[in-house]
């Protein structure tokens, strides 16, 4: 496919409206996005010699200015598109709030159809949705109806706790677009909703969040192996093994598919999820206090304003969903 695109490009003398440079650029982008690495490399290597002299609209111009203009614009566009086509999808979690069961089931079906989108909760009204977030629940995306009993979608947005998810209003009403703009919602979708429109919205949100995401953990994240006695962990980076005693661990923090073991002196990035640690740790003094944190209760210095104070000035929040079990275990120590 890519070879054919370039053959058509080279045959045009000069480019017509139907076979212009910009048209061939688009075709090459789509073709390269589906091609193998060798084909993508071929597209990149051929891009400058064909498109650079032509993309400014002058067929015969091959001046340095034209080349530099293309290199600063279209080449960057092409390289970015090719690289993005090989990147994994940014995973997103999603919550739905809609009092209409059929609409809610439709959205749940659309979420299940969308790669990289996981349903964290589905609620029949705004109050249940608000309670989910107040209990420490999180989501990247909130699909929200406007007209709901007791608490409308617009009222819910105004009182949601931080951090706020990306909110997409899904409604039959056209009259709330100004309110949606003032509340800075990510999108405003009208029912009945088709999957193509839904998918474009998710892709746009995913692209924006990916651009704002912090850098990925370093590639030297360690592989973790539990010691035979159960109270130690061996971390392997390249050919080096580092022993970590769990008694020295202040807390463990989730970071995507990684976890961070924090001691008084070091932070160890481990290629293991927080759930794995929660299942494998045999000690009752390690407690889950938040979706993203496990703490070592032996190092607690104080508890203040639903925060656990640890040595070295470390503070770990206690999510509402974990408060009852945490304080119950704390009293039993």
Number of domains: 3
Which sequence of SSEs, written as H and E, runs from N to C? HHHHHEHEHEHEHEHEEEEEEHEEEEEH
Structural class: alpha/beta
Question: Tell me, what is the CATH class of the largest domain?
Answer: Alpha Beta
The shape, in one word, is elongated
Assembly status = single chain
Read across the widest sheet, the strand sequence of neighbours is 2-1-3-4-5
Work out the helicity level: 40-55%
Largest sheet: number of strands, sense, barrel closure: 5 strands, parallel
- Report how far the terminal alpha carbons are from each other: 68 Å
- Classified in CATH, the superfamily of the largest domain is Response regulator
What's the CATH topology label of the largest domain? Rossmann fold
Radius of gyration: 26 Å
The tally of beta strands, per DSSP, is 16
Low-confidence spans: 1-87
The share of residues in extended strands comes to 15-25%
The total count of helices amounts to 12
């Amino acid at each position: 496919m890519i070879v054919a695109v370039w053959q058509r490009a080279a045959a045009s003398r000069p480019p017509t409206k139907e076979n212009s440079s910009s048209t061939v650029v688009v075709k090459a982008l789509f073709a390269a996005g589906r091609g193998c690495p060798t084909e993508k490399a071929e597209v990149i290597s051929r891009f400058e010699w064909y498109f650079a002299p032509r993309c400014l609209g002058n067929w015969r111009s091959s001046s340095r200015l034209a080349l530099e203009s293309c290199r600063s614009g279209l080449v960057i566009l092409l390289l970015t598109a090719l690289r993005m086509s090989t990147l994994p999808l940014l995973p997103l979690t999603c919550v739905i709030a809609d009092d209409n069961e059929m609409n809610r089931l439709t959205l749940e079906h659309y979420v299940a159809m969308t790669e990289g989108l996981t349903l964290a909760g589905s609620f029949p009204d705004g109050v249940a949705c608000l309670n989910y977030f107040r209990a420490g629940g999180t989501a990247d995306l909130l699909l929200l109806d406007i007209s709901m009993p007791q608490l409308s979608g617009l009222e819910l947005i105004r009182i949601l706790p931080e951090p706020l998810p990306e909110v997409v209003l899904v409604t039959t009403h056209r009259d709330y677009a100004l309110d949606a703009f003032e509340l800075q919602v990510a999108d405003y979708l009208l029912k009945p909703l088709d999957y193509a429109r839904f998918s474009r919205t998710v892709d746009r949100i995913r692209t924006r969040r990916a651009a704002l995401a912090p850098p990925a953990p370093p590639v030297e994240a360690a592989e973790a192996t539990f010691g035979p006695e159960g109270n130690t962990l061996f971390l392997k980076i390249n050919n080096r093994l580092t022993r970590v005693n769990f008694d020295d661990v202040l807390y463990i923090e989730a970071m995507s598919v990684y976890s961070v073991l924090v001691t008084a002196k070091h932070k160890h990035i481990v290629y293991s999820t927080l759930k794995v640690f929660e299942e494998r740790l045999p000690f009752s003094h390690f407690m889950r206090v938040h979706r993203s944190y496990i703490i070592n209760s032996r190092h607690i210095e104080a508890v203040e304003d639903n925060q656990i104070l640890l040595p070295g000035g470390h503070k770990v929040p206690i999510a509402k969903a974990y408060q009852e079990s945490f304080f119950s275990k704390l009293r039993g120590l």
